[in-house]
Structures are given as C-alpha cells and as structure tokens.
Amino acid sequence: MSALRLMWMRGVGEAEFASGLSTSTQLAFWILTHLGNPYGLLAVVLLLYASGSKLGVTPQYALCVLACGLIAVGVTIGLKHYFLLARPPTSYRGGYGFPSGHAFGATVFWGAIGILSARQGRRARVAGAICVILTVAASRVIIGVHYIIDVIVGMTLGASVLLVAVTLPTLARRHGASSPTRVSLNVLFAGAILSNSTATLFAPGRSELYMTLGIALAVSAALCRQDRSFIPGFRSRSFPPPTVAIIILAASGGLVMTLYQAQLNGLMLTLCGSGLTGGWLWFATIVRT
Question: What is the longest distance spanned by two Cα atoms in the chain?
C-alpha cells in the first residue's frame, strides 16, 4: 500500500484519544480553537488596519495579512472539495476535514503578525505566534473535528504562503521596485483572486468563496489607483483609531451577516463583497483625513 494511501486513511488513534479526555479539557480546547476562527481573524485584521500602528503593524502589512488569509480560504475550500475526505466519525461538525482551515489560517495570520510587525520585540511575538498556532492545531484534534494529518498539512500550507509573503518584498527590492510592499500586495491579492476563482470550480455552492473573491478584487482595484489614497500610511486626525476600528468592524460585520443570510447567488455575493470592501477602504480614508 502506497504512502499516499496510508495518509488518506489518516486516523492513527487520535479520535479515540480525544474522546477519552474529560469534558472540561475538551471545553477548554474548544474555546482555544477560536484563535483560528476565520471570522474572528478577519475582525482582528480590520482592527489592525485601522489602529495597528501602535503595535508596529502598518496598514500595508495588515493588508498583507488579509491577502494571505484570503488565499487560505480559497486553497482550503478548494482542497477540501477536491479530496472529499470526511472528518473523524466523532466530529460534531459536518463537511470535509482535509486540510484543516483553522490550522492553515492560524499559521498564516499569527505567523504574519509575528514576522511582519516591528523589529522591536519580534522574537517574543514569533515565539508567541508559534505557541498559538500549535495550540489551535492541537485543539482541532482534541475536540475531534480533525485528524493529525489534517492539521499538519494545514500548518504546512500556511507556512508556505507565509514564506512567499515574507520573501516577496526582498525579491521586489532586488529587481529595483521603488515600493516592494506595494508589489508584494499586488502579487498576494492576485494569488487570492486566483485561488478563490479556482476553488469555485470544485465548490460552486460555497458563498465564502464569492465574498472573499469580491474582497480581493476590491483591494486589488484600490491598489491600482494612481493616487494611492485608499492604501494610506495614515495617522488619525479626526477620530482616535479605536473609534474608527469599532465603527468599521460593526458596519462590516452587520453587512456580512445580512448578505450571508440573504443567500445571494455567486455574482451578487462577489459584487457585494467588492462593494463592502470598497466602502470600508473609502470610509477609513475619509475619517482619517
């Protein structure tokens, strides 16, 4: 039997181990697993975009994290519907389990926060990021929704995307780009558009793909603007950053939930995602000038 087939068999006793843990332990890890929740991570990205400068995260780097997250959505859903591998029989969730989207997203998000933020205190942030990533990965197995191989592949994919995001500015600088961060963002959002577009071929009914595709298209359009006004390295003048962040987050969250519940078709979801993101970028620019 081939090694690939052995991997597809997946289970090595982790489901049985997890089912034998106490209820309090499983509850604790169920809470910790939300550190990799994609909607929660999106909310944190919005906060970082609006007020992350105090943490050493510029708006450009916040968008870099967003692009990596959008790539993770497309790749995860595409692979899940390509391989069609079920979750453990003890899972309380339905759908497919390979690879782990939480492990993928946590690796991309927390890894990017640790690596791309300001140099001062970077080692501590990277160490903290690794702890969070491993905790999220372990929690997916302990609460019984993934096999070990699912989270290992998820973390590997996340590390690969993160490596590309970290390497792109250096490559752009070597080729004489005046704004390597801007070049990196263009490439990453192009990757987000490609990954989510491709994933719709395997999972045409997944609304998340069309929303993320719309978001990627909107930011890409903003990046192509000559005046660069939508991607500023701004400082708040009229409102304090936390106020801006709360307003943007509340408005965006309400609109996303409304659109999700409306069950619109793919084209409408893409257009709504683009419009929502365009409005978010525009509003962030207006209140800060």
Answer: 66
